[in-house]
Write a structure and sequence with these properties.
About 10% of the residues lie in helices and about 55% in strands. The protein is mainly beta. The N and C termini lie far apart (about 60 Å).
Length: about 300
C-alpha cells in the first residue's frame, strides 16, 4: 500500500509538470538574454553569433554582462531569469538559470509534503575564427562554433542534453550590409524521465546596415513549420547614449510586440534598459529588462 501511495504521488506530480513545463522547457533557448538585444526586436543573432568572437580577438578588454528579471509576471509569480556572460579574446562563456517558481508537492489527499523549485540551467562556450581560402585569410569572412549543455531539474525527474551552433559572419557586402547565418540548437535533446523533449532547432538569417549614427537590424528565424521575424533601429548619440526601438513578430505563438530600449555608458560600465510592450493578453507585456555590462 505504501508503494502504491508513493507511485500515485509521483503520477500526480508528473502530470502537473508535464502539462505546465515539459512542452515549453526548451523554449528558454530562444530567449534573448540581455536587454540590449531584446529592445531591438530580439536581435539575438548579431549579438550571440560565435562568428563575431574573432572580431574582438585582439581587444585588450574583457566584458562581463549580467541580467536578471522577473518572468511572465502577468500570469505567475516567482519565475526568474538569470544570465551572466564573459567575452574574452575570441571566446564567449555564458551561464543561464531559469527558476520556474516555487511549487508544492502534495499527496493524493492534497496535503502539502514539501515545496520545490523546478529549474533549467544552460552552460555555453563559443569560439570564432577567420575563414581562409588556400591558406590566405579572407578579410571579411568569419566562422564560429558554440556548444551548450542544458539541464532540466523538475524535482522528481531530471534530464540533460548537448546542443551545437554553427555560424558564419560576412562583413561589408557591397560596402553596405553585414550578413549573419547560423544553425542553432542542433543536437541531443534532453529527456525528462523517459519522455523526449523537443528542441527549437532553427536556421537564423540576419542583416545589419550601419549608416552614420543609425544601425538597422533584421533577423529571421526559420523553424520546422514556421518562422519569426524581428527588426530594430539603434540611434547612437556620441559615446555615452544609445536609443533603440524594435518589433518582434511570431504568428505561430501569437507573440507580436514592440520593444524600446536605452543604453547609458559611463567609464567602463554600460547600463542597458529594455521594455516589452504589446496587447493586454500578451504574457510578456510590460516586462522591464535590465542588463549591466562591465569592461575590464
Amino acid at each position: 500500500m505504501a508503494k502504491e501511495k508513493v507511485k500515485m504521488k509521483k503520477i500526480i506530480l508528473l502530470t502537473f509538470l508535464l502539462s505546465s513545463l515539459l512542452g515549453q522547457v526548451n523554449r528558454i533557448l530562444d530567449v534573448s538574454p540581455t536587454a540590449h538585444e531584446t529592445s531591438l526586436g530580439n536581435q539575438s543573432l548579431f549579438f550571440r553569433s560565435p562568428a563575431h568572437n574573432f572580431l574582438t580577438k585582439n581587444d585588450s578588454l574583457s566584458q562581463v554582462t549580467f541580467t536578471r528579471m522577473d518572468w511572465l509576471t502577468n500570469i505567475t509569480d516567482g519565475m526568474t531569469f538569470n544570465y551572466v556572460e564573459v567575452n574574452w579574446k575570441d571566446f564567449d562563456f555564458s551561464a543561464t538559470h531559469m527558476d520556474y517558481g516555487e511549487q508544492r508537492h502534495t499527496d493524493e489527499m492534497g496535503v502539502i509534503l514539501r515545496n520545490f523549485s523546478p529549474n533549467t540551467t544552460i552552460l555555453y562556450l563559443g569560439w570564432g575564427t577567420q575563414l581562409n581560402y588556400k591558406d590566405i585569410p579572407m578579410k571579411n569572412s568569419f566562422i564560429g562554433f558554440g556548444g551548450k549543455f542544458i539541464k532540466h531539474d523538475l524535482y522528481l525527474e531530471k534530464g540533460s542534453g548537448v546542443l551545437l551552433d554553427v555560424a558564419i559572419h560576412q562583413k561589408n557586402i557591397l560596402d553596405l550590409v553585414d550578413l549573419d547565418l547560423m544553425l542553432k540548437n542542433w543536437g541531443y535533446a534532453p529527456k525528462i524521465g523517459t519522455v523526449s523533449t523537443e528542441i527549437p532547432t532553427n536556421i537564423s538569417l540576419g542583416t545589419t546596415i550601419e549608416k552614420n549614427n543609425l544601425t538597422f537590424y533584421n533577423q529571421w528565424n526559420f523553424f520546422k513549420n514556421y518562422y519569426t521575424h524581428g527588426q530594430g533601429v539603434k540611434y547612437k548619440y556620441k559615446d555615452f547614449l544609445d536609443l533603440k526601438i524594435g518589433y518582434f513578430n511570431d504568428i505561430e505563438y501569437k507573440l507580436n510586440y514592440p520593444t524600446l530600449g536605452i543604453d547609458l555608458k559611463y567609464a567602463n560600465y554600460i547600463l542597458h534598459l529594455g521594455y516589452i510592450g504589446g496587447s493586454e493578453n500578451l504574457p510578456l507585456r510590460n516586462t522591464v529588462l535590465t542588463s549591466l555590462n562591465v569592461e575590464f
